[in-house]
């Protein structure tokens, strides 16, 4: 099928590349000339496991190309995906200026039937607004479909190619048939394509992300309580998770959720409730608890140093908001860096992918190291903010020998408490009993 994807950010690029991988003829449109030039030269602008291989393969096969011309894109695709940014407004709502701006251009330009697909995470009622905007300028036939993405960073290719479910919101049979034809090859295993109205599809995305953020936050509160009463959150987590109504996933406590989706989507759903006098009290609490969770280890660190972190050298492992990504949006590490440097500590950090992004955001506020052991050398304490695999089984002997004092604050519960005690570390983690 002929597909156009408008917007080559994270979602657009994964969508375009994976649709090409399945044999579709895809053109990706972006207004950023430099970025389009780079992509035309085979350079991929984001880090996402597996994506580079698919990107190269589909460009070489002639199924994936790039342009800055929206008109060229609109001529090409029978299905036009909108994968445009919906940044958080000052009041927490999603700003639709990019989506509606392109909708207007589409209305002015299209001459034959097109299916316009909202792939961006957009508030309930956006498909209707897009439809009205296009209609204002357009006499040709078209349908607007809501098709939210559920891609996890780090697993986006896998999630796209083998989705657990695909949600399509449309009230048009013609659009439904086209979308079914497009997505059928992705659900050969029997996973469902769920059709519904546009508003329900839009809300499904917000409700899913907000629920997951709530699940994590609930566990973080349980973890904080465990710490006070001397229970072990890992035991509680397993005890709870084996109830299939609860499920094992997304119960891992830590120093808070971050990223581009959960923080933004929770706030946007909360705000869109307020707009219609509906108060999402749970989401209010989720935002507050998560904010506090990001720096939950700071008071403990401060206590350890008798209230004075001035001149202390702190090693930091992990800067990205989660492993397998270079994304640092709302990353807990940044909140901890702020607190630590404000208190006069010196931070030496290592992350496998995210250091360039952190450097361009906060510059030389911290030092960046070539490897994990360089970051922990001669430090008064080590702080772990992201659970990259390489941090899971360090050489504890080497680590202890090279640190100034063997003190670890672990925001991701990577190690067993007994093994740390045996190895001679003073070890703190989240919601577990420490001896
Ligand atoms: C999320 C959704 O999972 C995805 O479906 C949606 O489309 C986009 O948002 P993503 O932000 O890439 O994906 O990351 P995810 O793996 O969901 O993790 C989000 C945050 O929750 C991370 O900060 C992670 O560290 C945290 N988390 C996750 C926990 O603290 N505990 C857990 O048990 C799981």
Automatic annotation (TrEMBL):
Q: What residues bind substrate, as annotated?
A: 150-153, 205, 250-254, 258, 322
Biological pathway: Nucleotide-sugar biosynthesis; UDP-alpha-D-glucuronate biosynthesis; UDP-alpha-D-glucuronate from UDP-alpha-D-glucose: step 1/1
Signal peptide: which range, if any? none
What positions does the domain UDP-glucose/GDP-mannose dehydrogenase C-terminal occupy? 315-417
- Annotated NAD(+) binding lies at 30, 35, 86, 121, 153, 264, 329
UniProt catalytic activity: UDP-alpha-D-glucose + 2 NAD(+) + H2O = UDP-alpha-D-glucuronate + 2 NADH + 3 H(+)
One GO BP on record is: UDP-glucuronate biosynthetic process
**Record EC number:** 1.1.1.22
Q: Which GO terms describe its molecular function?
A: NAD binding; UDP-glucose 6-dehydrogenase activity
The entry's keywords: NAD, Oxidoreductase
Spell out the catalytic residues: 261
Q: Which family does it belong to?
A: Belongs to the UDP-glucose/GDP-mannose dehydrogenase family.
Q: Which NCBIfam families match?
A: NDP-sugDHase
Name of the protein in question: UDP-glucose 6-dehydrogenase
């Amino acid at each position: 099928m002929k597909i156009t994807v408008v917007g080559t950010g994270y979602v657009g690029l994964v969508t375009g590349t994976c649709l090409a991988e399945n044999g579709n003829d895809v053109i990706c449109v972006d207004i950023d000339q430099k970025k389009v030039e780079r992509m035309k030269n085979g350079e991929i602008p984001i880090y996402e496991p597996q994506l580079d291989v698919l990107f190269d393969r589909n460009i070489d096969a002639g199924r994936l190309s790039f342009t800055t011309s929206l008109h060229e894109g609109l001529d090409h695709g029978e299905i036009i995906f909108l994968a445009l940014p919906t940044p958080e407004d000052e009041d927490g709502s999603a700003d639709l200026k990019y989506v509606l701006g392109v909708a207007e251009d589409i209305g002015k330009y299209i001459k034959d039937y097109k299916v316009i697909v909202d792939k961006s995470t957009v508030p309930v009622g956006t498909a209707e607004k897009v439809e009205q905007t296009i209609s204002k300028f357009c006499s040709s036939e078209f349908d607007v479909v809501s098709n939210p993405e559920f891609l996890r960073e780090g697993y986006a290719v896998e999630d796209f190619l083998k989705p657990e479910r695909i949600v399509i919101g449309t009230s048009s049979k013609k659009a439904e048939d086209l979308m079914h034809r497009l997505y059928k090859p992705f659900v050969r295993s029997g996973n469902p394509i769920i059709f519904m109205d546009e508003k329900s599809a839009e809300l499904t995305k917000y409700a899913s992300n907000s629920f997951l953020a709530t699940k994590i936050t609930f566990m973080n509160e349980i973890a904080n309580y465990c710490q006070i009463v001397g229970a072990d959150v890992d035991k509680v987590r397993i005890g709870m998770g084996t109830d299939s109504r609860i499920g094992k996933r997304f119960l891992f406590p830590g120093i808070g959720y971050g990223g581009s989706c959960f923080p933004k989507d929770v706030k946007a759903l909360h705000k869109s409730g307020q707009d219609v006098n509906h108060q999402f009290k749970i989401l209010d609490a989720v935002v507050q608890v998560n904010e506090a969770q990001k720096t939950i280890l700071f008071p403990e660190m401060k206590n350890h140093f008798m209230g004075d972190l001035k001149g202390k050298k702190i090693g930091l492992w992990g800067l990205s908001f989660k492993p397998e990504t270079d994304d640092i949006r709302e990353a807990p590490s940044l909140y901890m860096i702020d607190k630590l440097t404000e208190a006069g500590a010196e931070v030496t950090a290592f992350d496998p992918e995210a250091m360039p992004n952190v450097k361009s955001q906060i510059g030389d506020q911290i030092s960046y190291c070539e490897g994990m052991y360089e970051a922990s050398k001669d430090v008064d304490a080590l702080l772990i903010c992201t659970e990259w695999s390489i941090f899971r089984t360090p050489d504890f002997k080497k680590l202890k020998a090279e640190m100034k004092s063997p003190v670890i604050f672990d925001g991701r519960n990577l190690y067993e408490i007994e093994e740390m005690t045996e190895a001679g570390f003073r070890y703190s983690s989240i919601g577990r009993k420490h001896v």
